[in-house]
Design the sequence.
């Protein structure tokens, strides 16, 4: 089959690779109808990870089941399914508690809990930017979707970014009547704003400096805050008349100020300032235990010297980490079908697999209008 | 009346000061039967705060109501009461949500939510290391105790450290069957171990290097970890056979390593290492937004460069801040009366008010056996 | 001043009564700008309660503060406020836990926790269908509103039915992606549907037989189920393709079947049938410990012989009782101001106080189009 | 192999039956080391269910894994395991939410969610009162235990009654400092008292009339209430000085008064009376949708006419249903190993399989001292 393969920094290629096959009784094979390029794919693309050359990329996948192992009973050949990016065994202590993002059994990497498709350090699993994908523990991992082709664009976001955004709101304990500040108007930040409203938020502020993304934030009902126009915290405090109830971090360790300098502690500092005492912050932007390319010695070791004293004196809570997609994707699917959730609003491009190669370059340069790319291998 | 008054670094004095009086309709006056010296009083004693000279110290108070204002209906003259260290209005947004530690109305200090008796930056309220204390919003703040003198030693801990320790466990989400690591075997850390067991923990590890405190930890049923004997995280991992479910930080920004050097990020780093993925950490050890005496530029601004990358990659949650005493003191009182809670086990000294002066010096030098000092002004 | 007074079964009168005055230091006087007739006022109007003649009715009140006692600090003369129907002391055990609907101090009636204005068995408090109202514990009970007259129609519903409806969803644990069945399309049932959507429900079914109310349900985005057209449970199961996640009871003990016969267990039976195993049911429709007018001996003693065996075998949870308005009214106010909540959609009439007398009769006969009546005493 | 088989009302026999075998890739075979007789086995023994003759009884099982199917990866041959009584698929909507007691896939019986071993209406699964047991979805269902024979008596209670008792406390929301009334001092009621203390309860009252059971309640630290000596609610109100915070129902629909008459609504009525307003009740005593042997028409249809009006007026919450054992058994196991939980205190008999036959008769007659019977097939 054909697949997008990592070939070294800033290089991906469309290659012929062997078709995946059933390797264990609980495996299934999924023919990919849609697979997305994720912002976190760019970490690998840019060569800032240890991902091995030859790896098939792609952890945001959906498609049709073409084959199942003898242990698979619930999922049937022909089912249309969403594939959560987490590969979870379903039977370890973390999985049984609903923490599929920290499965104790699927990732053989020392010291890492949790596995994923086509991703650095997340286990030996190929990704789904390809025609077919092998899915371990298929009965547990796969989410069944309504047959047919309806909502394909919306459903494509169920494998990662929509549940991840919802998780950010869950970690931040966003509820009815809350005001929320979301830092970062990338796809996850935009959907965090969408999810905040789905959970009953009254006002949501989204901070970024890209005009196209801020415009999308408005389409999701949020109030755009352009940090290139001034201190975003001061802007929110003034517009809102005081601090907000909750905050979501959707930027990560590569935060830049308006002049383009990297400040890994910048967004956390702003969140600590803008959230009121007793509030909560959800962190879904990625922070790394090691970041050899960082500017300071501390940051190279994952140390982020943000304003912890103020965090404490305000009594703030903070939740972090990768989303357990299965905890949310069923309800989010139903909200899509009911017409109440419309995450697909942010999709900017739908391409075939070959076009995905140049899409990596456009997306990596954050070119205007390249918000979210969906690839259709079968097209 | 007589009161212990702050007179400058390392100097407290017993002085005659005016008796407190009813200043507002909802005030009450409490004759102090027991008032404690708290570890946080030492920050002021050492001159590391901006507390004004002449301030009566003491925020851990209990006694008998001698007078009430015309708006006080629930509490009666003669009632035996515990006085939570938080001074809360009972009607602001934070108080109505149970966050009395972040009352929006009682502290006029700019940017500070929450007030306390006899404390730097926590409002213009005298403390209770004195014969009498004025209590604002008495119906709301005071907890009624059984009449008489029984359990005085236990009840004396209801105004601060026992609820604070419980709050640490609440922030860490400690529940039945959890293993817990508590860093710091001061009074709050010891009671955090006690509270963890009250909440159903199966094993609790307490980390310190003082032999007398580690011995007390054992009396509370915990397993002592002496960090002067080796890396405490390695010790716990080995004894427990892996990481623990929950962690409690009861040390604060003045953390020292075994050689006596201050490392404000040390305890947080250890907690991030020792708590398993998906776990939670409660931080009740104090961190300050500003600490002019700190060793590094960052720490002077309250910046603590701990291993945030690993926190994120393990999906840890963290809660922080001062305890809302009222949320817990009623149930803890009942557990004392039922004989199921015995926090008084850690009380080392019961003295009169005049003896309190030298007690400050002994306690500040952390002399062996000076774990917790109770003062009885009426004695 | 003028006030609507209960004079016996089916008789209310506009009478001159003494102006209320400050009776305790924490009282305030509110000039009523809007006061509503509630469905539960009809229990008294119909003579089915023990309410005393001469009582001023009206527990859904809002207005302007004209006077405050010396203990009142937070609320100021001139403030525009919503008055929760619960009269709560703010300092008892239940109030401190946020259960203002079960205040232990404000209702002297033996065996009853919780007080209200102008209501049978809820304490000696006159209601607000009058020009002025005395509000005890004003700093605690009153919710401040934006000055002016904007959103008056929406804010008028903050004193009872909007928070009550939200409480029904809270008791039923309604969350994002849930399907919900609401029984009863009276004002509370309609707002329960509205609240379910505010909390993220994907589909809401509202069961009633009145065409005007079912039409309003549709305006709130819900799917109307007319039980006069067939078994409502079968209808929902068919439309939804199976049972729903959550149920809300907004009818109460006077449930009637399509032929007009009273069956107090009917709605609970239907909820047990229509909610899926592991689901939850919130009961805000009123059930009475004693109902002398009931058809069966059991029902006279408050016994409701619903299908408990199936409740158990499905593992359902059920929460009941009057709403603690303060827990929700602040957030609901903010959602109104942000334009995200529009409860006023169901208001059918805005009248002056004198017109309220005939409104009782129209509303009691449930005449077509008389959904919700607001009275403006100052008009 | 040999097994205890149901042969008709009041008749069980030790029969030779075929050894169970791996039937599906995710099955395992467990050699039973301990299997208990449960109070609910007596419903079948007495002929009050539709259980088929020839069924092997026994749903409280533990033992050693002797064989696994090709899909089983986590559990290994030789593992010592506890077998939860719920048979759960691990991949349906209810299982993924942790509700293994309401698995949607393992029970083919129309309208029933949830399956069990050797039980009426709970699917076509033989029980474990036998030498071997087939366990479906073994990786998901089995709980690993420390190798060896230590704690066998304690661990034997992990398959059902200890987690069921804990679930009762969870449904009743029992927490630190709560007072609790448990109705029924059978094995589940006694362990509910034990679990209430593990969760931090300050006082627990256990209501029964059997002296041996009340004596056991005291050994677990609870206060025995003998309902043959007078109204148990009045007794508790007097001893406790008022109503309790939480209630647990561990009796079920066959409740008898002190004179031996059956009153299915009796215990619920008492709970509604004894729990304070805003409290919660957990119901783990079994209620049946159909009970042909009941005394009244209503009760035959599962209708329990308890005092619902008072439940509502007190704002009580109620949770019901079979326990999802997996949600609790891991933590309870750890509490046993740590020596903090000692459920085995109530075991009265340990017998071999053949002796189990007469044990049914003794236990069914509730003979003095026959509290809990463990059978050791391998002995």
Sequence:
């Amino acid at each position: 089959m054909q697949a997008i393969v990592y070939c070294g920094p800033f290089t991906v290629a469309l290659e012929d690779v062997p078709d995946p096959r059933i390797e264990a009784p609980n495996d299934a094979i999924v023919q990919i109808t849609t697979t997305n390029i994720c912002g976190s794919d760019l970490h690998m693309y840019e060569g800032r990870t240890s991902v091995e050359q030859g790896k098939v990329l792609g952890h945001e996948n959906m498609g049709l089941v073409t084959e199942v192992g003898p242990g698979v009973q619930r999922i049937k050949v022909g089912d249309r399914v969403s594939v959560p990016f987490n590969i979870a065994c379903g039977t370890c202590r973390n999985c049984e508690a609903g923490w599929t993002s920290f499965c104790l059994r699927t990732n053989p990497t020392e010291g890492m809990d949790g596995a994923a498709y086509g991703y650095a350090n997340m286990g030996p699993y190929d990704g789904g930017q390809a025609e077919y994908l092998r899915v371990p523990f298929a009965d547990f991992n796969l989410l069944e979707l309504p047959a047919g082709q309806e909502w394909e664009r919306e459903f494509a976001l169920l494998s990662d970014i929509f549940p991840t955004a919802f998780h950010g709101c869950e970690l931040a304990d966003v509820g009815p009547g809350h005001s929320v500040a979301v830092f970062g108007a990338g796809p996850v930040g935009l959907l965090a704003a969408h999810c905040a409203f789905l959970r009953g938020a009254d006002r949501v502020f989204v901070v970024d400096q890209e005009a196209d993304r801020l415009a999308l934030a408005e389409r999701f009902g949020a109030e755009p805050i352009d940090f290139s126009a001034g201190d975003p915290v001061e802007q929110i405090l003034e517009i809102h008349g005081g601090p907000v109830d909750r905050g979501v971090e959707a930027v990560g360790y590569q935060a830049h100020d308006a002049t383009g300098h990297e400040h890994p502690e910048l967004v956390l500092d702003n969140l600590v300032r803008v959230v009121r005492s007793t509030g909560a912050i959800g962190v879904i932007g990625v922070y790394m235990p090691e970041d050899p390319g960082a500017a300071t010695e501390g940051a190279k070791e994952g140390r982020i010297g943000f304003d912890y004293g103020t965090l404490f004196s305000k009594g703030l809570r903070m939740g972090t980490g990768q989303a357990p997609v299965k905890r949310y994707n069923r309800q989010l699917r139903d909200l899509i079908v009911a017409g109440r959730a419309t995450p697909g609003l942010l999709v900017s491009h739908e391409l075939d697999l070959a076009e995905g190669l140049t899409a990596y370059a456009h997306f990596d340069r954050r070119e205007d209008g390249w918000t979210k790319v969906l690839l259709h291998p079968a097209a």
